[in-house]
Amino acid sequence: MSQYIPTLDYYTNGLPLVCTMYASSECYFGVNLNPLCKPSEVSYTLIPIMAYFEFLPVQRNNGVNSSISVPKTLNEKEQQELVDLVDVKLGQEYELVVTTYSGLYRYRVGDVLRVAGFKNNAPQFNFICRKNVVLCIDSDKTDEVELQNAVKNAVNHFLPFDATLAEYTSYADTTTIPGHYVLYWELSLKGTTQFLPQFLRTVA
């Protein structure tokens, strides 16, 4: 959701964007103890009485899993790698695994979290991305965070043309050789469209 922060800032004229909790349909996970912080600095403190939380270490830099869906159960090797809430390490990324009172046992939520710090002894987490949200062509894999960073860099080219990015989406096109990624951008042009061809050449 971080791609919507600039748009929300624009329409709210700089009002604070408050994110108070981290939850899903399966369980209420945690709270933001500093609700008036910047959206990019939000961290959540998990509430251990809501569920039993475990963490599966994630190594995103060593290659992104190309699987389209996240298996909801753990294999034997993954069960041995699970880390308890009290044993997470600062700066490490983990996939959240929950056991709930309503009967979910070691359920993989599919969120990748990074340990951002500690409140007393309670670890606080940044939400990084959904696991396996990935564009994949052969051995090249681009995850959600990498795509968002690339789009942010491209937005800098919009400024001289008085244009803003309203929305975007993407897909991996394998109908050609080599395959390539296709980005669709919805642009808001405040001024004249006479510079549009030059603009498109600039960002291509």
UniProtKB/TrEMBL annotation:
Belongs to the IAA-amido conjugating enzyme family. The keyword Ligase applies. The keyword RNA-binding does not apply. It comes from the Eukaryota. This is Uncharacterized protein. GO terms for molecular function: indole-3-acetic acid amido synthetase activity. Residues 146-190 form the GH3 C-terminal domain. It comes from Gossypium harknessii.
